[in-house]
Fold this sequence. Notes:
Blueprint: E1 3-7, H1 13-23, H2 30-39, E2 43-50, H3 51-57, H4 88-93, E3 95-104, E4 107-115, H5 124-138, E5 143-149, H6 153-161, E6 165-170, E7 181-185, H7 192-210
Parallel strand pairs: 4-5
Antiparallel strand pairs: 1-2, 2-3, 3-4, 5-7, 6-7
Helix pairs in contact: 5-7
Amino acid sequence: MRYVIERMTMPDVPRVIEIERLAYPSTWPPSAYRKELQDNRWAHYIVLRDKQIIEEHTVVPPQEPERPRKSRLFPLSLLPSRPAVTISSPELASIIGFAGLWLMVDEAHITTIATHPDFRQHGLGEFLLVSLIDTAYSIGARWVTLEVRVSNFVAQNLYRKYGFRQAGVRRRYYSDNQEDALIMWTDEINSPAYKQKFQELKSALMTKLDAQ
């Protein structure tokens, strides 16, 4: 598949900050992400990569035409080697989204989900959410919870699609404009009903992403 999910690492942080600044009016400082990755053993952060970006930016050196053989005055090993092709920049550019959660006893608390504005409307925010719920299963969580702006109806609809329900309001939660946040929770994710619905939604999403 074109898109892959990987664990966030320290070299990913500059690109994560870049995407966050494009996605949100208020952001975490880079030191906060570094602290999460280094010191918070209950934190789980992921990045979403577009492999096509790496393939498009990987430059292969052109083949030199074959020349008549000539005797060499010194061994081939002493000749200067062609510089290696680096894909460090494409590797960073390939990150088009990120997300994270904290495990709090048996609750997976989603802390952030963001996609680059150029890659919205393709189901990638949903892919990040599905990946976080998969993470919640793998770390033994029983419920998943999050906060979302009261004005963000698109995100709310996505969360409701995956079984989140409103459980309360945090007043003046967002520091940039003092907007309230809805508190949303899933039912127990290990229940047969939730598992079945989640797998159906995940399967449909994977089919959609495979076709891109």
